[in-house]
Amino acid sequence: MTTTNAPAEVTPRPQSPAGGLASRLRSITLSSALMEGRALLALVLIIAVFATLSDNYLDPGNLVTITKQVAFNAILALGMLMVILNGGIDLSVGSTVGLTGAVAGNLFRGLDLPLTQAIMFPQVWVIVVISVGVGALVGYANGLLISRLRLAPFIVTLGMLYVGRGLTEVLLNGQNITNELRGQEGLGNTGFFEVFASRPLGLPISAWVMIALAILASILLVRSPFGRWLYASGSNERAAELSGVPVTRVKARIYVIAGTCAGIVGLLQIANISSATADLGQFYELNAIAAVVIGGAALSGGRGTVRGTIIGAFVIGFLANGLVIVGVSPFWQQVITGAVIILAVAVDRVQQIAQNRGAARRAAAEVRSKTPAASRSA
């Protein structure tokens, strides 16, 4: 009697959750590296072009100026990166910069104590803490409305943009605060410019703050559970919630971080221009978003790095400075900067489409390879 053995059934080997997560992380890392590589190449090309067009472009003094301006945008962009990684947006950081400057200016001017004729002049460190705290408070309000009430980030932060700008106008009452920022020796509130407008080792203090915050942000995103939670909730919020990620808490905290970064920039800027003005911080939110996007972050969330964001800020800074040096009209500067942002988003989208199609082809090929020959012929 002849016995025919039936072909053994081929069962696809289930992929472990750890393996799937590792695969996704490798994909994210590769995508970020490609975007950062393009941003770095763009930076090199910008430097090469404007260095050819102007002999003063790579002058040490101009490089220090560029670094100082880049630092302001980069600090804001680090906070914006946290928000965008979660799939959100914060349009209020620019007005928070202005509001922080107005609060600091009024504190230097002195506070009228109620029910008395006395005026209180806080020390510099108190002014710094209160001013940065105002930025954090604005971020806390944004995070509370977005995370607890589940309101749209765009609407909440757009409304807060107007609230912050209006409060700035109220505090300044149409007047710039200049001389009061230096403080008075007899009141013990001097030294603000000596610290926040200083240049340790030849670099502006804003650059050192940028470096310190970039290191802290990198540690937070790469080495802490918060960073893993942030990437997970940005990639798939529902799946992250089912996996035990405190999605609401993460969403609330990122807006506090963004507001705190805006408060720091507000202090650095009034030290830079020696004045608290009503228009301080206008359009800063757009430059911060642009730096994050050019640096390879996805507006849909779940992808982006500190390194790429810093590179994106330098791309914008070197481009803007080069356009000024070669005498390009300010109106055309806005056109060119906007075109660069659109190009960065378009390239990112094309890359995502190509990756999705490649992943689909690989998945189909894997299914065909695991399907028995008898089943395919049938």
Shape: globular
Beta-strand portion reads: under 5%
Helices and strands, in order, run as HHHEEHHHHHHHHHHH
Euclidean distance between termini CA atoms: 28 Å
Number of helices: 14
Descriptive overview:
The chain crosses the membrane at residues 39-58, 70-89, 119-139, 151-172, 201-222, 252-271, 283-301, 308-325, 331-347. Helices cover 71% and strands 1% of the residues. With 378 residues, it is mainly alpha-helical. It has a single domain (28-354), classed as Orthogonal Bundle (ABC transporter involved in vitamin B12 uptake, BtuC). A hairpin with a 6-residue loop joins strand 1 (111-112) and strand 2 (119-120). Helix 1 packs parallel to helix 12.
Brief summary of the model shown:
With 378 residues, the protein is mainly alpha-helical.
Architecture blueprint of SSEs:
Layout: H1 17-53, H2 60-85, H3 93-109, E1 111-112, E2 119-120, H4 124-147, H5 153-172, H6 192-196, H7 205-223, H8 225-235, H9 237-242, H10 247-273, H11 284-294, H12 306-325, H13 330-370, H14 373-377
Antiparallel strand pairs: 1-2
Helix pairs in contact: 1-12, 2-7, 2-10, 2-11, 2-12, 3-4, 3-5, 3-10, 4-5, 4-10, 7-8, 11-12
Pfam families: BPD_transp_2
GO molecular function: transmembrane transporter activity
Membrane topology: Multi-pass membrane protein
Keywords:
378 residues, mainly alpha, ABC transporter involved in vitamin B12 uptake, BtuC, two-stranded antiparallel ribbon, 14 helices, disordered N terminus
